[in-house]
Amino acid sequence: MINAVGRDIPDEILEITGKEPFQGNFYLDDKPMTKVGPTIRPIMNNKKSKLVASIREALIKCEAHDGMTVSFHHHFRDGDLIVNMVMKEIHDMGFKDITICATSLGKAHDPLVPMIEDGTITRIESSGVRGRIGEAISQGKLQGLAIMRSHGGRVRALTTGEAHVDIAFIGAPTSDDYGNLRGIGGKADCGVLSYAIVDGNHADHCVAITDCLVPYPNFPAHISQTKVDYVCVVDEIGVPSKIASGAAKPTTDQRKLLMAQYCTDVVVNTPWFKDGFSYQTGVGGASIASTQYLAEIMRDRNIHMGFGVGGLTKAMCQLLDDGMARVMLDVQDFDLDAVHNLKNVNHHRIPAGVYANPLNKGAVVNKLDYVVLASLEVDVHFNCNVVVGSDGMITGAQGGHPDTAQGAKCAIVICPLLQGRIPAICTDVTTVTTPGESIDVVVTDYGVAVNPARQDILQALREADCVPLRTIEELRDTAYSIVGEPDKVEFEDRIVGIIEARDGTIIDVVRQIKEIKQPAVYKKKGRRRANG
Amino acid sequence: MEILKTAVAGTLESSDCLVTIEPARSGLQLDLESAVMQQYGRRIAEVAMETLDRLNVQNARVSIVDKGALDCTIKARVECAAMRAADHEGRVNWGGVIR
Questions:
Q1: HSE value, Cβ hemisphere, 13 Å, CA-based, for A104
Q2: Which residue of chain B is at minimal alpha-carbon distance from A487?
Q3: Is residue B74 within a helix (H) or strand (E), and if so which, with residue range?
Q4: CA A518/CA A94 separation, integer angstroms
Q5: Are A159 and A353 in contact (CB under 8 A)?
Q6: For chain A, which domains are there?
Q7: A484 partner at 20 to 30 Å CA-CA among A74, A257, A269, B47?
Q8: Could you tell me how many helices (H) and strands (E) chain B has, helices first?
Q9: Residue A337: how many CB atoms within 10 A of its CB?
């Protein structure tokens, strides 16, 4: 069935998953829905200890079994040691047919690939996957389907019961012996535990893993003792230097600085840029430079940010420290500056559901004026792709992209026209991960395109005459005139993954890649050399 | 143009390509490896073959390792490698077959 972004979602996939094709951003708005809770074992006996000696003991006590679903959070980013530690134990105990329901998976988790190949792991649900797991899924090694859902979408899926977690493993920088968990005060601080809060609320069993046991009570707790069954102390839960891997050096790349300038010009010349405006941005070089340009203009015009939200960085926290922003709402810390900044009383932790769940009574993203995002590809329908590389290989994550893009009044995507020879502005993205109806402005190094659905923005930018305005088709044509029109990437028929829209409908599918032989050999007959 | 010896041109930097041309007894053979094989492999082979044709190279074994080079780069690298392999350096026919 063709969905609202023109992608064909095969009936068999709708049947297997019981899902509907994507119908547009507001399909489930105001529709009644029922929340589902976990089945838990109350702890009334005050003599019972929650401490377990090993992950294995925790697995046994939580009734680990074939076919179960285990969950993880990704606040330790590339420095995460929890996923591999737990999965190794599950593998050694011989369990099969496991579903991993993670908030995200990255390069740190390459060691899971052999477990995918031997059938230990048969399904993966995640915001996305980077590194070798992405390759393995694209090559068809995962027996079941990979489900990619946004940060808000994951909370929604756990709340509606669409996804059910048997055992959640929550890495916690500090814990007491009764499971009060905090993101700070330990050896490997990640600052917040926002993405794991929903696991505490909806998993049947919840195991805290820490490398820093502190005296009771570890307060104020970011995840409460009332959600935690067992506490396991291990040597190391994360590699601190790799947790802050998002820390970007200030860029000197002229192309990125140009796009940052355009982006700031768009922000300050649209109607929402006034005292009390709200803003979210990412960790790319252009995003950070753009935040710094914006700060200068805010100072000049005495405009203060009402709130900033998201995965936070030094650049955003600086605004708070300088009194240029009133409040920061934090779901993830990309660098250690952001972790340390949590000491600021106006820097607040919020759960992933508060941040972005589309099916609660209104998430923070709905209150966003601006979000600045990146994208691997943007097409002439303004659809974005942040998960599948232009070569067809799964290589990225949705994160909060679809959530914030839908929520914000003005969603800006920064995207260089070309990535090497690959045109980032194209006729059709490889895979749709954020629908074009959510995207308002596309900033490239060759000009700025405004979604024709947003005549208000177009008019404001025309009047300001601040950036070179192009149509999205003009940008694509410029790209193709430089690099040539790309041939379509060929795929096998088999569907290896689905991309869920925020509300759980299917926005696109990902197919198995076709192995290509390299080198390819081309031959042409010649005349025999006269003198040879 | 007759290929007399093995010659190379280009680099393995991003957006460049490394072209190697060797003498062969009969016909052209092109071995292509590319970072953008799926989207541009066909086009790269086309540009390389056209360029060899224009230079009237009929017997050669050519290998290209491409890192996302544009057509103009591929053409220039193939021309340069062929000139070197044919000992034509220093007497390039600018405005003739080299355009």
A1: 27
A2: B39
A3: helix B71-85
A4: 38
A5: yes
A6: 33-243 (3.40.1080.10), 254-483 (3.40.1080.10)
A7: A257
A8: 2, 4
A9: 18
- CATH code of B7-85, in short, is 3.30.230.10
CB within 8 Å: B40 and A421: yes
Q: Do A522 and A513 touch, CB atoms closer than 8 A? A: no
Q: DSSP character for A21?
A: B
Q: List, as ranges, residues 387-446 from A with C-beta within 8 Å of B.
A: 390-392, 420-422
- The answer to whether residues A314 and A307 touch, using CB atoms and an 8 Å cutoff, is no
Q: Is the pLDDT of residue A531 over 50?
A: no
Nearest to A526 by CA among B13, B99, B3: B3
Q: Hey, how many other C-beta atoms are within 10 angstroms of the C-beta on A378? A: 26
Distance (Å) from the C-alpha of residue B67 to the closest C-alpha of chain A? 8
The stretch A16-21 carries a mean pLDDT of 96
Query: Using the beta-carbon criterion (under 8 Å), do A520 and B45 form an inter-chain contact?
Result: yes
CB contact, 8 Å: A516 with chain B?
yes
Residue in A393, A395, A417, A421 to test binding to B, most B beta-carbons within 10 Å: A421
Distance from CA of B84 to the nearest CA of A (A): 19
Please tell me which of the candidates B29, B37, B43 has its beta carbon nearest to residue A484: B43
- Given an 8 Å threshold on Cβ–Cβ distance, is A518 in contact with B58? no
Q: What is the pLDDT of residues B3-56, one digit of tens each?
A: 999 999 999 999 999 999 999 998 999 999 999 999 999 999 999 999 999 999
pLDDT tens across A110-125, in order?
A: 999 999 999 999 999 9
| Spatial separation of the C-alpha atoms in residues A503 and A244, rounded to whole Å | 31
For residue A42, cis peptide bond before it (omega within 30 degrees of 0): no
Q: Of A413, A390, A408, A388, which Cα lies nearest the Cα of A398? A: A388
Give the closest of A484, A489, A521 to B29, CB-based: A521
Which candidate, A338, A433, A416, places its Cα nearest to that of A374? A416
Instruction: Give pLDDT, residue A527.
Output: 62
And the tokens for A322?
């300088």
Burial A79-103 (b: 16+ CB within 10 A, else e): bbbbbbbbbebbbeeebeebbbbbb
Contact A525 B37 (CB under 8 A): no
Per-residue H/E/C for A95-119: CCCEEEEECCECHHHHHHHHHHHCC
Which structure tokens are listed for A96?
A: 């099969």
Distance from A448 to chain B by nearest Cα, in Å?
24
User: Is 90 exceeded by the pLDDT of residue B88?
Assistant: no
The residue to which tokens 């490698």 are assigned: B81
pLDDT in tens, A226-273: 999 999 999 999 998 888 766 667 789 999 999 999 999 999 999 999
Size of interface A-B (CB pairs under 8 A): 92
Q: Which amino acid is at A56?
A: R
User: What residue type is assigned to position A131 of the chain?
Assistant: G
- Confidence at residue A532, expressed as pLDDT on a 0 to 100 scale: 38
Give the SS3 label for residue B13. Answer: coil
Find which of B33, B36, B39 to mutate to test the A interface (most A CBs within 10 Å of its CB).
Answer: B39
Pick the residue of A522, A523, A524 with the most B CBs within 10 A to test the interface with B by mutation. Answer: A522
Please indicate if any CB of chain B lies within 8 Å of the CB of A343: no
